[in-house]
Write a structure and sequence with these properties.
The complex is a heterodimer of chains A (about 260) and B (about 270). Chain A has helices spanning about 115-120, 130-140, 150-160, and strands at about 5-10, 10-15, 20-25, 35, 45-50, 55-60, 65, 70, 75, 80-85, 90-95, 175-180, 190, 195-200, 205-210, 215-220, 225-230, 230, 240, 245-250, 250-255. Chain A is mainly β. In chain A, strand 14 and strand 15 (about 205-210) form a beta hairpin. Chain B has about 270 residues and is of the alpha+beta class. Chain B has a single domain (about 5-265), classed as Phosphatase 2c, domain 1 (4-Layer Sandwich). In chain B, the strands form 2 sheets. In chain B, strands 2, 3, 4, 5, 6 and 9 form a 6-stranded antiparallel beta sheet that branches. A 5-stranded antiparallel beta sheet of chain B has the order 1-11-10-7-8. In chain B, strand 5 and strand 6 form a beta hairpin. Chain B starts with 6 loop residues before the first strand and ends with a helix. Classes of the chains: A mainly beta (about 260), B alpha+beta (about 270).
Amino acid sequence: MAKLIVTLDGQPITELELRKERITIGRKPHNDIVIDNLAVSGEHAAVATIHDISFVEDLGSTNGTLVNDAPIKRVPLRHGDEIEIGKYRLRYAHPEGIGTRKGPTDFDNAPTPHDTQSQAPAQPQPVGALAAHTVSLAGEGGGPDQPARQETAAAAAAAPADAPLEPAKTEGTRAAIQILNGPNAGKELELAKTLTSLGKPGIQVAVITRRPHGYFITHVEGNLRPAVNGRALDTHPRQLADHDVIEFGGIKMEFYLK
Amino acid sequence: MDLRPALDIASLTDPGKVRSHNEDSLAVDAEAGFVILADGMGGYNAGEVASGIAVTMLSDSLKSALRGGLADRETGSLVRAEIERTNAAIYQAAQSQPQFSGMGTTLVFALFHDNRVTVAHIGDSRLYRYREARLEQVTRDHSLLQEQIDSGMLSREDARLSRNRNLVTRALGVDPAVAAEIQEHAALPGDIYLLCSDGLNDMVGDEDIQLTLGALGANPKLAASQLVRMANDNGGRDNISVILVRILRDFPANRGALARLRTWLK
């Protein structure tokens, strides 16, 4: 049976097995777990357990409930999760380690979120042309790669970070690439679709994606990575600027806006 | 049988740009060879409770059922029974706890076994198959919109503009019993299967999904993040979840003498 272990400053205080369908945590004496501290609301949080799956829910408390340092309204609990209420921590322990998510999902192996993602909520980006340019790359690396558990934080971060991007740059603008060397020198390829792929499948492929705030190149497969202005791409998409030179499998191409 | 060498799987979920929390739940088990996606709904944020129960219960019970080996003929009935059990659990929880009342969830599920795929779905979460450069929708939504299209009341064009696009006519956990739609298809090396919540297909058209799988299919992880990114670029009005499964090679069931003997002795 799963249980909650309550600690204060690292010292265990009490623990409670989750036998009931619903237990409550709060300052008032009728709660299943009573925490007598002024930072804790009368009815602060509840844990519902259904078929061995537990969910923690904030009951509209004044100071909020955190799970693994992120504020929550209601989330499913996984073995080892830590609920934070005031200065108290409640660790959720499941005997079979249910939901530790070893394997089943990709999220634990997801690349660490882009630096700018974590800064975004603390320092709302000013709305302006310059800001829009810098932030666009942050949005590119962040959002979808966020671990599931940081949903709330990710959403909070996404809003201010993406807001300046709204004035869509690609609406109405067109772009193309022109081949600069080799037998096809001079040929032009218009980037009309949301996604244009370059190269040969199975050997070397890169794609250029058209997004509301610009064009981005991403390496897809192959040992050799394309380079933009002499710098090889890493795993993240790279935004293209007017007259950037892309080098790909010995072919040089120029990206330009029409 | 460990299917990891045969399946390349990537999954991604994102709250989107409008909603503050995510009611979708996913489970992926490449070793056992199944993927599950559920899109929860219900008052007072109970949606993620419903989808969470659905995904956890189904994946736990399938994992233990598959450990015992799968006799082929039983696949469909096994899946149906597990879905019914899950439905009953969510329904009971919704009845017994007032804060969960009215919750429910869609479900789309794929189990890969013996060069085949068993697909089950309830509601408007979808499974698509990309094969030979063509994208095909395998599941048919259980939604008001789809019923209107089927009965000829709405054309596909009008449907794209319809407002009540998210009304589902079948869901897990809202009635004491539910009928999952179950299909079985041959799975071929090179196939890519896409499971998604409506947060993807409401925001990104089939042509763009096809284009993405064509260009990025060799790298499911990248394709998944590109799909989510496109949905967000187009407005991200709902939670967006995608699971991509690429078939790397054949995965016939182990029919060795020992395996046959084991089945026989059981």
